[in-house]
Amino acid sequence: MSKILITSALPYVNGVPHLGHLVGCLLPSDVYARYMRMMGHEVLYIAGTDEHGTPSEVGALSEGMDVEEYCTKYHNRHKQTYADFNLSFDCFGRTSSEQNKEMTYHIFEQLDKNGYIEERTIKQLYSIDDGRFLPDRYVTGTCPYCGYEKARGDQCENCTKVLEPTDLINARSTISGSANLEVRETKHLFLMLPKLEKKLDEWLKTKEPFWPDVAYSIARKWLKEGLQERCITRDLKWGFPVPKSGFEDKVFYVWFDAPIGYLGITKQWADADPENRSWKDWWFNADDVRHVEFMGKDNVPYHAISFPATLIGTGEPWTQVDYLKGMSYLTYEGGKFSKSAKRGIFAEDAVKEFPADYWRYWLMSNAPEGSDSSFSFDLFAGTVNKDLNGVYGNFVSRVLKMTASKLGEEVPAGGTMEEVDRELVKVLQEKVNNYLKYMQEMEFRKALGELRAVWVEGNNYISVTEPWTVIKENPERAAAILRNCINLIRIFAILSAPIMPDTSAKVFAKLNLDKNDLPLLQNFDIAKEIEYLKPGHKFTVGDTLFERITPERTEELKNKYGSDK
């Protein structure tokens, strides 16, 4: 057994997550966490809301709310949404916590002591009409690199280039929309990344054989271009006040304290049960921990460059990321998700339309791993109808109904394994081994392809063996076939559990099994598992697992959530 620390990029607290946010980091990290638990590992799965910075202040301003009240409101909405999607966090915390403040101050003081923090006088945009400096997202304008006209003052959403507000062309205030801006001098603190470049480069080179290209190439690109000094303070009221003389009226930049939030949230988790939990067991001098991070590619620079450099600069034995799973983007019906334009289905609405497992399966089957993926209701309905209803659900319903009508609602007795059964075991074992390999490697699309292939083999087996015909001449042989098929249903549910936990629980209920009694996937033996349920074991046919999505329903959803098609 190993200790696996899993962190998922912390979603900004402002607004509600859409499907792209889910598949970009949160859902893959949950699937991996569930899988690693089923492999017998000790897993700590950490996430939370990122609550500081201009996004929160701007959001609170737009809703006429106190910023802390605003953050609490949206933290709770995030938390409920992720619970509805069955994300199995050990702790879903907040970056505004006292624990994160403690961690942030400690790391800052170590960096300052080691000579990696320096004061700089910089030129910053000042809004005459608003009477204040405009940091980060308080400024929007045209990106000087790609021409995107809605670039923010911290980063261009379109080309992912990190920016300063003064870089923007035709800059304007996010607060008032005013373009009456001027550049003024102000003092800020900087993290001296160039001083850490050599150490960071040496560390990053150790990741090349392991990290996916989308993460490693972004990190290398940053190093190739040369690291720049990074401002870590802002002229805001909301955030952690800077504990340094002369800077008490400033707060830490959100991208300084947000990644430290993983440590702070872990301490939140530990503080809830201090007699049995220690955050240091996972983050400090923890040589037995493997740390895996999940995030969208726009967040990769901060987690592959800025945050590792920050930890290196302390000179302390912090746990660094071992594997960074960077994801590309999910588009919606040929364009972007947009709450304002009423385009796209957002997570809290999605679970009102269909059970979470429908979404979990589709999103992981189409995860944007190597390149962007596109969501459409036509594709979604096609996958649900073909894979879930037509292959998995059809097999379960077909087998249980046939057995109940011909032999009663219990696992039938009689017959022995024949060559066709042994061939099934052989073929399934190969596919299961592939599935486990791809899950281990976090190649989720390939893993789900193998999982579907397992379901298909079950359908092929029952079609070839024809128990409905055999039962007329050889009831014992028919009993053996159906007994194998019922055990296949259990195998399907076990393998599907990391992706579709609710469905697996429903299948286990049909089979009169405890939903928590899942076997370890380590050395999963089909020959053994296909004989797990013995003759006489009771089952219930119950309801169908998945509903078919009609063309009419598909059109209704497209109209409801916006589509160009």
How does this structure look, described?
There is one protein chain. This protein has helices at 19-38, 54-63, 67-84, 98-113, 193-205, 213-225, 254-271, 280-283, 300-314, 347-353, 356-365, 377-407, 419-440, 444-465, 467-473, 475-496, 501-510, 526-529, 551-561; strands at 3-8, 42-49, 91-94, 117-127, 132-133, 139-142, 151-152, 169-173, 181-191, 230-231, 233-234, 251-252, 289-296, 323-327, 330-332, 373-375. By secondary structure, it is an alpha/beta fold. The longest helix has 31 residues, at 377-407.
Overall spatial form: elongated
Which CATH architecture of the largest domain would you pick?
Answer: 3-Layer(aba) Sandwich
User: Percent of residues in beta strands?
Assistant: 5-15%
Helical/strand content category: alpha/beta
